[in-house]
TrEMBL record:
The keyword Glycoprotein does not apply. This is RING-type E3 ubiquitin transferase. GO terms for biological process: protein ubiquitination. It comes from Chloroflexus islandicus. The keyword Membrane applies. It is found in: Membrane. Pfam families: GIDE (PF12483). Residues 104-234 form the E3 Ubiquitin ligase MUL1-like domain.
Amino acid sequence: MASLILIGSGILAILGAAALAAVAYWHDRRLAAIQQTPTWPVGDLLDRVRAGLLSIGAAVEVTGIAETQTSLRAPYSDTPCVAFRYMVHEEREQAAGRAWDGKQKKTETAFGDDYTQSVPEFQVRDPSGAITIVTAGASFDLRETVARYEEMTGLGGSEREIWRQEWALPAGSPVFVHGYLRQLGANPQIGADPRQRGPFLISFQPERSLHQHLGRRSLLFYVLGGIAAGAGVVAIVIGLLV
C-alpha cells in the first residue's frame, strides 16, 4: 500500500512539474516577443503606417502616458484609471452551540472575489503623437494600490477576517504596450493579435523592468518544476523498491 502511495505521489509531482514548466515556457514566449519587437516613438510608428511599411497584424510597441476621456474608478482607492483589478478574500467564524464535551463549536465559511475591468480603449501619448489602444484581449500588469487586512469581532464571538488587494493603471501615468496593429488608415489602432498567437500586454512598468520581471518569473517556475520533477522521480523509485 505504501509503495502505491509513493508511486502515485511521484506521478502527481511529475505532472505538477510539467504544468510549472508550461507556465515558465509561456513567460519565455512573452519575453521573447517583447525583446524581438522594436519600441517606436508614436510619431515614427504613425509615419511608418501611413507610408505602408507596416501591415495589419504587425507586432509593435509604444510607451508614453495613458490618457482616457472616460476613466474608471478603482473600487478601494478611488483612483481614476484605465484598468483595475481587485481581489477580496473573507473568512467568517461563528459560534454554533456546544459539543458533547462542553467545548464551544464554531462554523467557518470562506468566500472571495477576483475581478478585472478596463476601459474599452485609451490613448498612449508621447511628445511625438498619440495612438489608440483597444484593450479587448489584453493581459494587464498593474501597479498595486491597496493591500489591506481587516479583522473584526462581533456579538456572540463571531469573527471576520478580510484581505483586500487592488491594482490599477492610473490615468495620466506611464504605460508600456506590446500589441499588434488592428487598423490602418487615418486612425491606426493597437490591440490583440488577430491571429491569436502573440501576447498583448499593457504594463505600468518600463520595458527594461518588465524584461527583468518576466525573466525572474520564468526562472522561478523552472526551478520549482525541477524540484517537483526530482521529488517525483525519487518517490517513484522508492515506491518501486519498497
